[in-house]
TrEMBL record:
The keyword Nucleus does not apply. Keywords: Activator, DNA-binding, Transcription, Transcription regulation. It comes from Celeribacter arenosi. This is HTH araC/xylS-type domain-containing protein. The lineage of its organism: Bacteria, Pseudomonadati, Pseudomonadota, Alphaproteobacteria, Rhodobacterales. SMART domains: HTH_ARAC (SM00342).
């Protein structure tokens, strides 16, 4: 799929530091991907979507936020009924200025060409984000109002990372945050270890010492939490959900899910989708 390139000079007027938009995504598969020379942040306010990159595609659900760096070819496709997207395009130098002041923000907005970072916000966090977005939508397009929106969001995300034990090494905490991305946890424990840049045995010892769990324990919990969101919010078949999280053995999937939630995937879906026609 060929990629075109979008430029900030064609979107941001002189003196503007960001562009804010809301849209309803088309259900048509994008004919071509696009890359860009600016930073971008978007989230699903409602509905579902497919996020398509040169590496493949993944499902986005309501509350999923994606941070996209320059030079990453991508596209979006709505799934089902109206998929409402909120999108913020940010001038390059504003994020680079932010990196200098707050190095922690490189966990989310990364160097050009680096894979997008995806995080999920539950309904409580999403309501707060939506309120902040309304204020930003009506504000002047200046750095002051951009920072007033971005910094509380990223401080909140960084604060969640701080819940890790103080003695836990930064490389492990950062890798565990990155592992919340389906592109990482789909690879299982190997995906987490790759983010660490350390030998598997060293990562396993360190996780056991600081978190009393193995890399597989941690990654499988992320996988099951993602599967639970899919079961509650989509009609996708169990086999498709299992494939999305990198598990091909359905018996293994059922064992892990029951251990996490105390019920089978089907029981969980029935409980959380009352009144919705269930897939066979």
């Amino acid at each position: 799929m060929l990629a075109s390139k979008l430029n900030q000079k064609d979107i941001l007027a002189s003196g503007e530091d960001f562009h804010f938009s809301r849209s309803v995504l088309s259900n048509r598969r994008p004919k071509a991907l696009h890359s860009q020379d600016y930073f971008e942040l978007f989230w699903l306010h409602n509905g579902r979507a497919r996020f398509v990159t040169e590496e493949g595609r993944e499902t986005l659900n309501e509350g999923d936020i994606v941070f996209v760096s320059p030079g990453v070819a991508h596209g979006l496709q709505g799934v089902g009924e109206e998929s409402h997207l909120v999108n913020i395009i940010i001038r390059r130098r504003r994020i680079k200025d932010m990196w200098e002041r707050y190095p922690q923000t490189t966990r989310f907005f990364r160097e050009a060409g680096t894979a997008p970072v995806r995080v999920h916000r539950d309904s409580r966090h999403l309501a707060r984000l939506s309120s902040s977005a309304i204020a930003l939508e009506g504000a002047p397009r200046s750095q002051l109002y951009l920072d007033a929106f971005l910094l509380p969001l990223m401080a909140e995300l960084c604060g969640e990372l701080r819940e890790a034990p103080a003695a836990a090494p930064t490389w492990l905490v950062t890798a565990m945050a990155a592992a919340q991305d389906p592109n990482v946890f789909r690879e299982g424990a190997a995906g987490l270890v790759a983010q660490c840049g350390k030998a598997h045995a060293h990562v396993a010892r360190t996780m056991r010492a600081h978190f009393d769990q193995t890399p597989s324990d941690f990654v499988n919990a992320l996988r099951m939490d993602y599967a639970a969101r899919q079961l509650a919010g989509t009609p996708d078949p169990l086999s498709e959900i299992a494939d999305e999280i990198g598990i091909q053995n359905m018996s293994h999937f059922h064992r892990l899910f029951r251990a996490r939630f105390g019920m089978t995937p089907r029981q969980y879906r029935v409980k959380h989708q009352k009144g919705v026609i269930q897939p066979v």
